[in-house]
Design a protein that fits this description.
Layout lengths: L3 H9 L3 E3 L7 E7 L4 H14 L3 E6 L7 H8 L1 E4 L4 H12 L3 E5 L14 H9 L3 E7 L4 E8 L5 H12 L18
Parallel strand pairs: 1-7, 2-5, 2-6, 3-4, 3-5
Antiparallel strand pairs: 6-7
Helix pairs in contact: 1-2, 4-5
Length: 183
């Protein structure tokens, strides 16, 4: 029997889910493109339907009253943009047997050609793979592009990610671009 989030995503909104989540207990999962708050809603339905144990990373500024209650219920963890937040996430991974940290590699809604590298360092330090997920508005698809298990070389990882996202269509295509350092 199909779960309610799957019914909403696939039957009502007419999105197609592609690829099955790899059989890993922990990951840093990146979702792109991220040009609209709708990405979070559709992504949340997809993840709820997957049955994964996951947490989103969100800016700590979003956790001020009253929005903090919403973001906590949504499954978000507040993070600040400092060097310590990567170590905080690694500690969370160390405490959990099964956890997937979800975030946008762009690090923001605004267009940027320099993606954040924190997700890479989280995966590397926690010794977990990077799962590359996508949301394509033109095709109305959401799913997985692949998994990167070798996080020894940041250049190689970013080149792989750029290749996977080459033909993915954002809700607002003019607001999305790949990291120019690696594409």
């Amino acid at each position: 029997m199909k779960k309610v989030p799957g019914i909403i995503l696939e039957d009502i909104l007419k999105w197609e889910s592609t690829g099955s989540f790899p059989n890993v207990k922990k990951s840093v999962t990146i979702f792109a493109p991220h040009t609209s708050y709708w990405d979070g809603f559709i992504g949340k339905l997809y993840l709820m339907n997957s049955g994964l144990n996951y947490k989103f990373l969100s800016k700590k500024e979003f956790f001020k009253f009253p929005l903090g209650y919403f973001f906590k219920a949504y499954g978000s963890i507040p993070v600040s943009r400092n060097k310590e937040y990567i170590d905080e996430i690694v500690k969370i991974f160390d405490k959990e047997d099964n956890l997937h940290i979800i975030l946008s590699p762009e690090g923001q809604l605004a267009k940027t050609d320099h993606w954040k590298k924190g997700f890479f360092y989280m995966a590397q330090r926690a010794n977990v793979p990077i799962v590359v997920a996508y949301i394509d508005y033109k095709k109305k698809e959401i799913g997985l592009k692949g998994i990167i298990t070798d996080t020894n070389d940041i250049n190689s990882v970013f080149h792989q990610i750029s290749k996977m996202y080459e033909k993915v269509n954002a809700k607002y295509p003019n607001e999305f671009c790949l990291d120019k350092r690696y594409s």
